Amino acid sequence: MFPNSSNLGRPPFPPKYQQQSTLFTKLPLNIPPTLLSHQQVIVPPFRFRTSVGNVEATPAATLVTLQPMTYGSVSPVSTLDALTSFQGRKRQSQQSVTDGAKRQRIHPHDSDTTVVNQAVPLPEERRHSFPASSSIQSPVLHACRSPALIGCVPPLQDTSFPDPTETRLSVAKDELSQQVLELFQACRQQASDLNKKELCRTELQREIQLIFPQSRLFLVGSSLNGFGTRTSDGDLCLVVKEEPVNQKTEARHILSLVHKLFSTKLSSYIERPQLIRAKVPIVKFRDKVSNVDFDLNVNNVIGIRNTFLLRTYAFIENRVRPLVLVVKKWASFHEINDASRGTLNSYSLVLMVLHYLQTLPEPILPSLQKNYPECFDPTMQLHLVHQAPRTIPPYISKNGSSLGDLLIGFFKYYATEFDWSHQMISVREAKAIARPDGIEWRNKFICVEEPFDGTNTARAVHEKQKFDMIRGEFAQAWQLLRDKRDLNCILPLKAIKQKR
């Protein structure tokens, strides 16, 4: 897709870090020493060495499972055997992408070996994929795994839909529930949608690594968490180093270089790049090849962690994804799903749905962070984040409410029951809790706790007028659905299915 770009600038840290392979010897307590992309990437023909010998890739573009990486001499885990202890099946190569899908993205390299999507490579003997089986149980997964239980979260090669949980979707016995399911089936993210985003991520990473050689680019958010739609934007997290990055200074400088790259060398493929100087600055852009809009941030690793927390909630109970998709479509249609205009972002809406399902008299969802703390440890190394949730079994709830009844109950809860003035929405605690007395929460109209870092994800709602509009939409949706039990009364279903 992109030409090999030249260096547009130097990383904003001492030059010695650019010249050594043993980059960091002293690691901060809250940042993991290793980085491993949780995604499989498409690469041109190349030769690579596995732990069992040399393998030559097929002439076609091939999907390759990435290998564990580390900075300097720090091992990803205490021993090599611990790394090979995951008992889930090894990620298999998917079908090669067709020539039409690749277009001009894939280009051959002159060398026999291509360095793909990696920070500092491990010594050759330590480059291992996760094996199919092992007699050693991972210490991370041991506490949250039972041999008799099968995990509910599909592995990443099954991110494309339909997925293994498809046969477990609710049976809709009433018209409203059927409408919810049909909208979900029509609008949810498809394999082709995800492949477009992954192709762009792969090529952008290759170009960005010419400026920041130790960087990794992660696809995060709705594209991977199970709540994506056919029109969802792509969210990217650029991890430049394992140390924290000052978002006001260093992150902005890094993004200014990325913005320059997009505006010059990659201008034939990237359009409308904008540097947005928000609390977490981003570069917004559109990929001309895939026609997908993207937001790219720097070192916002919380986004990587919460992607897989939400992914687990998405697949742990079969009513969750249809409900979330309908709520997101409803909020977008009624113009209360845009943080840049002082309303709710999609992440807050998802947390609001999860919170509601946790707080029913007979809960439909638990607190995953309470029940499986080892699987959602906020200090877990990034290369383990995508693996741990796959051991969690489905949640069996005694609540047999239909999708239609749950949707009506969702609107009723926020229209009449939730105390906006004194309570905070907490998925981490699985309940509404009293607002803290910090500046993050004081005088805020809506308080939604981020499950990992405790910030307010709904801080964009800072005008009473916008808050009143949001509450009014919840109340109106509840009354209309309660009386008519027809999704068309709050959403033009035919038009939305066509747009998707």
UniProtKB/TrEMBL annotation:
GO cellular component: cytoplasm
Family: Belongs to the DNA polymerase type-B-like family. GLD2 subfamily.
Main location: cytoplasm
Subcellular location: Cytoplasm
Gene Ontology molecular-function annotations: ATP binding; metal ion binding; poly(A) RNA polymerase activity
Catalytic activity field: RNA(n) + ATP = RNA(n)-3'-adenine ribonucleotide + diphosphate
UniProt keyword annotations, A-Z: ATP-binding, Cytoplasm, Magnesium, Manganese, Metal-binding, mRNA processing, Nucleotide-binding, Transferase
Domain PAP-associated: 402-456
InterPro entries given in the database record: MTPAP-like_central, NT_sf, PAP_assoc
GO BP terms: mRNA processing; regulation of gene expression; RNA 3'-end processing
Biased composition (Polar residues): 86-98
Region described as Disordered: 86-110
Cofactor field: Mg(2+); Mn(2+)
Protein name: polynucleotide adenylyltransferase
Nucleotide-binding keyword on record: yes
A Pfam family of this chain: MTPAP-like_central
Domain Poly(A) RNA polymerase mitochondrial-like central palm as annotated: residue spans: 176-314
EC number(s) reported in the record: 2.7.7.19
